[in-house]
Specification:
single chain, Rossmann fold, 494 residues, 15 helices, 7-stranded mixed sheet, 3 domains, GMP Synthetase, Chain A, domain 3, alpha/beta, globular
């Protein structure tokens, strides 16, 4: 089925059936269809060309689930604009993206974005949770072109996670989106009684990133509903478990510490058969602790927007076959992907267990090898181990220090919930490693010297951070990844 037809079919479902649950309220398919119809009407009335790409300042709110599906159903290309940035930054994006129209929440149509849209001749569209009129044109804005034309193939420009700087836009055609997020998904397309009886999917990752779309789209395509959260909180995740009793759900790496800090009863997770995790490093010790306490296996995956989704996974079947011997791995190739590890300089493929740069061939993208910035090794059984980012390695006086290895050592301390290691410039050594640590709730206070002494017992001398700062909370992206630039700024400012 053509992707636009597949998404259009969602709006043909029984109007009273629930599509989205948000903040204690249900939004049915009749309301979702109202959003779609009103959006199409505004675009037509205001003269937005049928093939013009549209910008979306996508917040995790029901109107944007409907808007994104509606644009996909119309075959329109989507350009994501990062919602959680300043009004001036949104205005700058509107000014430079050269779009005929931009959809945003009324909260985002403040003076600077509004003026940018007026100057650029970009139609502003407001999307809300209003029952009767969720879509309306923003007063004072109009289409005054010409604007950028349609891409060679319709699709969506998703945002990177923004851990190392401003999020970047990465284009994915709808052909790839359909293959990766629907055809390769564990949820088959359809909307029969069996699918509708499944627990809804909990969606907390931002719609602007691949993880948010990757969770929403397969669930809705498969006929189930979604429970939407603006951001992950352990309270909303816990409420979701109690209300819907899912057999499987996702939990971000930072969520495991939150779970233990909140002391969620073991019985409340009894419905779960598996917990999925991804997006960033999950410490092996935390997997062991979680599984020992809650009795629920954890599976992890590795992927990226550049691959149109996951390319490895640690399945339950692999866990049963290999036990805990591969807990540090992100699994074996999936979805037809091929992996290899190469020398950074020569490009020569390395032998089993040798460390180098990871290259991936993802059939969804094409037959070419895509070189990543991840340092990795592949063991004799074909399992992938991610050791850190090559472009994040700290070169201290000629020695390479991998931040993830240092962070893992610090996280072995009983008071430390999470650590982040970043480089600082140094006149003598070039770079030095420094670390910010977030303590567990209720943990005993710990000094910098105590943490450094703990690290010295676990690491080589050149790996030990020169400074360790204890912070109330590490700065994070909406998907709970740590913002590396903001951590480095703590030390520069200090």
């Amino acid at each position: 089925m053509e992707f636009s037809r597949l998404t259009a079919a969602m709006f043909e479902r029984p109007g009273q059936s629930v599509a989205v649950e948000f903040a204690g309220r249900n939004y049915d398919w009749a309301w979702m269809s109202r959003v779609s119809a009103q959006l199409a009407a505004v675009l037509a009335e205001r003269g937005v060309p049928a093939d013009a790409p549209l910008g979306v300042v996508a917040r995790n709110r029901p109107a944007f689930a409907a808007v994104l599906l509606a644009l996909m159903a119309q075959g329109r290309s989507i350009v994501m604009i990062y919602a959680l940035q300043s009004a001036n930054a949104i205005a700058a994006d509107i000014a430079k993206l050269d779009l005929a129209a931009v959809v945003a929440d009324p909260e985002d149509w403040t003076e600077a974005p509004l003026n940018a849209a007026i100057t650029a001749g970009t139609l502003g569209i407001s999307a809300t949770a209003d029952a009767a009129t969720p879509i309306s044109a923003v007063a004072g804005t109009q289409v005054r072109g010409p604007h950028r034309g349609a891409p060679d193939e319709p699709g969506i420009e998703l945002l990177s996670s923004g851990t190392t700087g401003a999020p970047k836009r990465l284009p994915l055609s709808y052909r790839l989106v359909e293959q990766a997020m629907v055809r390769d998904s564990i949820v088959p397309p359809g909307h029969g009684a069996e699918a509708a009886a499944k627990a809804p999917a909990y969606v907390f990752a931002p719609f602007g990133n691949i993880a948010g779309i990757y969770t929403m789209l397969p669930a809705l395509a498969g006929g189930t509903s979604i429970v939407l959260a603006e951001k992950f909180t352990i309270a909303s995740w816990h409420a979701y478990l109690l209300a819907h009793k899912p057999k499987a759900t996702g939990l971000p790496p930072a969520g495991y510490t939150m779970l233990f800090d909140a002391d969620i009863p073991v019985a409340d997770l009894a419905c779960l058969e598996v917990v999925h995790s991804g997006s960033s490093r999950l410490d092996e010790a935390m997997i062991r602790k979680f599984e020992a306490h809650y009795g629920v296996p954890v599976t992890v995956a590795y992927g990226a927007t550049e691959f149109a989704g996951p390319v490895t996974s640690m399945t339950l079947e692999l866990r049963r076959e290999f036990g805990d011997s591969k807990l540090a791995s992100v699994g074996r190739p999936c979805a037809g992907a091929a992996l290899r590890v190469v020398d950074a300089d020569s490009g020569a493929e390395l032998a089993t267990d040798e460390v180098g740069l990871l290259e991936v061939m993802a059939p969804r993208i094409g037959p070419q090898w895509i070189r990543t910035t991840d340092l990795a090794r592949i063991d004799a059984d074909g399992f992938l181990y991610i050791l850190g980012r090559a472009d994040g390695a700290i070169v201290r006086g000629g020695f390479k220090v991998l931040p993830d290895i240092v962070a893992s050592a610090l996280e072995g301390h009983p008071s430390v919930a999470e650590a982040c290691v970043v480089p600082l410039d140094d006149a003598r050594l070039g770079q030095i490693p420094v670390a910010a640590v977030e303590l567990r709730t209720g943990a005993a206070p710990v000094s910098e010297e105590e943490l450094r002494a703990f690290a010295r017992d676990k690491l080589y001398a050149m790996q030990v951070p020169v400074r360790i700062m204890v912070v109330d909370a590490l700065p994070r992206t909406p998907s709970l990844k740590v913002r590396l630039g903001e951590v480095a700024a703590l030390f520069r400012e200090g």
